């Protein structure tokens, strides 16, 4: 389970670096990644 979470975080982090150009965009990407991780963990 920890390997899956680590892999997902790594992928989300890489996408967040390439997907946004502003500080506001980075914040939104990090927030979205956190929400997805909460969903995965709660399941």
From TrEMBL:
Signal peptide residue numbers: 1-19
Record's GO cellular component terms: membrane
Listed Pfam families: Entericidin
Keywords: Cell membrane, Lipoprotein, Membrane, Palmitate, Signal
GO biological process, one term: response to toxic substance
Statement: the UniProt record of this protein carries the keyword rRNA-binding: no
Keyword Signal: yes
Family: Belongs to the EcnA/EcnB lipoprotein family.
Descriptive protein name: Entericidin B
Species the sequence originates in: Volucribacter psittacicida
Lineage per the UniProt record: Bacteria, Pseudomonadati, Pseudomonadota, Gammaproteobacteria, Pasteurellales
């Amino acid at each position: 389970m920890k390997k899956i979470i680590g892999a997902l975080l790594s992928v989300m982090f890489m996408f967040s670096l390439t997907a946004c150009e502003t500080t506001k965009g980075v914040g939104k990407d990090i927030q979205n990644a956190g929400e997805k991780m909460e969903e995965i963990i709660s399941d």
